[in-house]
TrEMBL record:
Annotated organism of origin: Jannaschia ovalis
Any Pfam family the entry gives: AAA_3
UniProt-recorded name of the protein: MoxR family ATPase
Native organism taxonomy: Bacteria, Pseudomonadati, Pseudomonadota, Alphaproteobacteria, Rhodobacterales
CDD domains: AAA
Domain ATPase AAA-3: 46-179
């Protein structure tokens, strides 16, 4: 059984290497962003991409859909968007014999890869339409529960600067995202490559490497990957140390954090450290994977107190301090 799993992990690692090469034909640079997005999909979850306009977030989602062989849909969130625009609705039809009946018309959410563009521009009522879908992979319309396609992933984007006409995502919805991905400006050399590659007579096209069934199989392999006891303890230490009312919380967390991550954060780390190890060609994760994923997994599951924000405290700095302490403890053990 161990030899069989080893062979599956190695074969999947090779295939993921091909997928990353295919993605690189259209996404220049942004290796960490691509890695985190792939990790979210391998973990079977959703990702929130935070970045200014023009940094390639939409292009990344489109490329991932092509390479992973998934059906795609895109929703441009606006203040006047209604839940029915996402979920679909029933319409009254009259048949040739004069009989009238309701017919359900599916909304764009019935896709394997859904891009929710500028998700924070929709009203809370519309944002809540995604909650059941993201957690349970079903939607309830007119009293009927309808399953979504498998796999089902939401990659949402958000502009971190422009806040006029936006609605902050509720904590319950943020917690449904497996991780948050910060998309930064490229360095000069990368930006030069982007300019040259995207302004010529033709642009490179990505090729399909996976299909829906292949991705589901990959997700099953990820869940079977072994995780050492030291990594499990590091995950628990990290998550629990970020809760201000926990005995293991650091002084900085107790002073500055209003509320910390719940059990979903530990679940996300367990899945993502495996995915990261797989993407790097390793057979099992280690404590360095936990440290690397601390910000993406915890950053949207914690909040600073009002006093801490007034003092200019940064949440990333608090997470880094906790991560450094946990990592030192694990290394000493």
């Amino acid at each position: 059984m161990a030899d069989e799993l080893l062979g599956e992990i190695e074969a999947l690692g090779d295939r993921l290497g091909d997928a990353r090469k295919a993605i690189a034909t259209r996404i220049i640079g942004q290796e960490d962003v691509v890695s985190l997005a792939l990790s979210a999909m391998l973990g079977g979850g959703h990702a929130l991409l935070i970045g200014l306009p023009g940094l390639g977030k939409t292009r990344l989602v489109e490329t991932l859909g092509t390479v992973m062989g998934l059906s795609e849909a895109r929703i441009q969130f606006t203040p006047d968007l209604m839940p029915a625009d996402i979920l679909g609705s029933e319409i009254l039809e009259t048949g040739a014999d004069g009989a009238r009946a309701f017919r359900y018309v599916e909304g764009p959410i019935f896709a394997q890869l859904l891009m929710a563009d500028e998700i924070n521009r929709a009203s809370p009522r519309t944002q809540s339409a995604l909650l059941q879908a993201m957690q349970e992979r079903v939607v309830t319309i007119a009293g009927a529960t309808r399953p979504l396609p498998k796999p089902f992933h939401v990659l949402a984007t958000q502009n971190p600067i422009e806040q006029e006409g936006t609605y902050p995502l509720p904590e319950a919805q943020l917690d449904r995202f497996l991780l948050k991905i910060d998309v930064a400006y490229p360095d000069r050399a990368t930006e030069r490559d982007i300019v040259l590659a995207t302004t010529g007579a033709a642009e490179a096209e990505a090729s399909r490497v996976f299909d829906a069934e292949g991705l589901i199989e990959a997700q099953a392999v990820v869940r079977r990957m072994p995780v050492g006891e030291s990594v499990v303890e590091a995950i628990l230490d990290l998550v629990r140390a970020c809760r201000p009312d926990d005995a293991d919380a650091t002084d900085a967390v107790k002073r500055h954090v209003a509320w910390g991550p719940g059990p979903r954060a530990a679940q996300a780390l367990m899945l993502l450290v495996r995915a990261q190890a797989l993407l790097e060609g390793r057979l099992a994760p280690d404590a360095s994977d936990v440290a690397r994923l601390a910000r993406p997994v915890l950053g949207h599951r914690m909040a600073l107190s009002f006093a801490a924000r007034a003092e200019g405290v940064e949440l990333d700095a608090v997470i880094d301090e906790v991560t450094a302490r946990v990592t030192r403890v694990e290394q000493a053990a």
